[in-house]
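Session log. Operator J.P. requested a structure for one protein chain; no other inputs attached. Running the standard single-chain path with token output.
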Amino acid sequence: MAYTKKVQPTKLELIRLKRSLRIARKIHKILEDKKEVLLKKLGEMVDKATERRKQLENELSKAYSSLLRAYLDLGPLKLEGIASTIPSNLEVDATVRRYIDVNVPIISLTLKSKGLGYGFADSSSSLDEVVRRLSSIMPLLVEAASFENAVFKIALELEKTQRLMNALEYIIIPQVEENIKFITSTLEEREREEFIRLKKIKRVLEARRIG
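Structure written below.
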């Protein structure tokens, strides 16, 4: 490799590269462990997000059925007029949970009603059912969004981790190993040359003593 020609073939450089190789392999192992944990957490979040979405779809289906009955009972104009008078207060609580190196915002919602805002004489049981169902759906909707956001963030971190692992496995570690091989081979060749040179010197000195 052309990369190895830039390396100084010295014992000090060999020691440095061997230390770097040990560190790179340790980092790769740490990233492997991190990847396993992230995959497990991603699976959990996907399951939770899927479960919440199914619950949400089920509740929305029931709410739309109730809304349709309310439209039939009261008519669209009256129903929309009543809907515009219903006050509500949304209380949002945002926290951050950390999964490995991923900060995931978790949002929970509490719906505080200040009264229905319409009289029973002007309404119907189908309208009451719509209000009840839609009110219960809001926290579920926020929770489902939180889980899906967690899936997205964990997936991004998993992708980043895999890229780092690939860089170590296919680029950095092979380059360091090749450099170690290059330096080791060069040093061994130098030792052989030095050994041969010393043997020649020894033969010359011995010949001079005999002569």
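Operator note: The longest strand covers residues 88-99.
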